[in-house]
Amino acid sequence: MASRGGPRAAGTDGSDFQHRERVASHYQMSVTLKSEIKKLIYTHVVIWLLLLAQMVVGHLKLLHHDQVAMPYQWEYPYLLSILPSLLGLLSFPRNNISYLVLSMISTGLFSIAPLIYGAMEMFPMAQQLYRHGKAYRFIFGFSAVSVMYLVVVVAAQVHGWQLYYSKKLLDSWFTSTQEKKKK
């Protein structure tokens, strides 16, 4: 190549550098997936903080029990669901595969398992509400079982997508690791 503004080397139009300008697709995917997982983790933290606030208000009786009901049993183990999210965030700076795998396993144990248990625990109350229109627990005037089922559905989606994107991210990291070993 020639200097700026000078003649070009014979046989080139100056565009032969573009193949070196592209970022490998697995690196682009890694950045995109990390961003998506971070959004899901932040959404999870909001859900977690709302459940924590409900538990604190319920136990300390800061509001009348007609305003905020006592928590269901599944909410206590769900508080541990913050740990997988923290492990996921810790895995990002150095693409730590072991932290990401631990995050995925503990998401199933501390996040999804309590949600499944919660859906089963609240089912008789939901059935009673549906059949007889009777609710005994309330959260700001709404049936507590309805509100908490909504929380369970949203949280299950957040954790499901988090696991899906984490698996794709793990695959992306393995691709980059395999390419490094080939060199």
Automatic annotation (TrEMBL):
GO terms for cellular component: endoplasmic reticulum membrane. The chain crosses the membrane at residues 41-63, 98-117, 138-158. InterPro entries: Jagunal (IPR009787). It is found in: Endoplasmic reticulum membrane. It is a multi-pass membrane protein. Belongs to the jagunal family. This is Protein jagunal homolog 1.
